[in-house]
Write a structure and sequence with these properties.
Blueprint lengths: L28 H11 L4 H8 L3 H8 L7 H11 L3 H5 L20 E4 L3 E5 L9 E8 L16 E8 L1 E6 L2 E7 L3 E5 L4 E5 L6 E7 L1
Antiparallel strand pairs: 1-2, 2-3, 3-9, 4-7, 4-9, 5-6, 5-8
Helix pairs in contact: 2-4
């Protein structure tokens, strides 16, 4: 799939405030798209599969290198299951210091992929600095992935059930069993594969 050619379809959008006379910066669509993608726990590759847009196109949009066409906007909205206005809506500013979000067992938001079966936790809170989720590891080998998984931030995982092989770009593969954990920089290529008889279950926490 070839990249979409840049087109300036949408006018520059600003975050309006009736109560503030301070200079307001334009809303960056790429930054907003990245926030939405990460809120769903999607890698660029997974977002590409859902939207039908090339991974390179998504990366260029997120980095403000190109502006998406109207057709691309429709694919983004349909693939990410959001309304087009949500792509332009600025994130709400949260100042509360007493927030909480309880997720009952098996009541997280399901998000299956070809290699993982994610259960997103604490989905009612916005603007989280951490994104927790449980994942059932379907992949069985390094070859089940098309490429390394990379994204911004840091990541922690704890094996809850079974055993996994943890692959990382700069280290030798290592087996992790129930109770084992690892903390790593998520912009380093990484991927997981179950090596136990049953698909392994892990707790994953991604921090921005």
């Amino acid at each position: 799939m070839s990249d979409e050619s840049p087109q300036d379809i949408y006018p520059s959008m600003t975050i309006a405030s009736e109560q503030s006379s301070e200079k307001i910066e334009p809303l960056k669509l790429g930054k907003r798209l990245k926030e939405i993608r990460k809120s769903f726990g999607l890698t660029l590759e997974e977002a590409s599969q859902k939207t039908g847009l090339a991974r390179s196109t998504l990366s260029k949009i997120e980095n403000e290198q190109i502006s998406p066409t109207f057709q691309a906007m429709q694919k983004l909205a349909n693939g990410l299951q959001v309304d087009i206005p949500q792509l332009f809506a600025p994130p709400k500013q949260v100042t509360a210091t007493g927030r909480r979000d309880i997720t009952r067992s098996e009541e997280g938001k399901a998000h299956p992929t070809s290699t993982y079966e994610h259960e997103l936790l604490a989905t009612q809170l916005t603007n989280k600095k951490m994104m927790p989720f449980k994942s059932r590891i379907r992949a069985r080998s390094f070859d089940d992935y098309g490429d390394w998984i990379r994204h911004d931030g840091e990541e922690f995982l704890l094996v809850l059930q079974g055993e996994i092989n943890f692959f990382s770009e700069f280290y030798e593969p290592v087996n992790l069993s129930e109770g084992d954990s690892v903390y790593y920089d998520a912009n380093m290529g990484h991927m997981l594969a179950s090596v136990s008889e049953e698909d392994a279950l892990i707790l994953w926490v991604t921090a921005s």
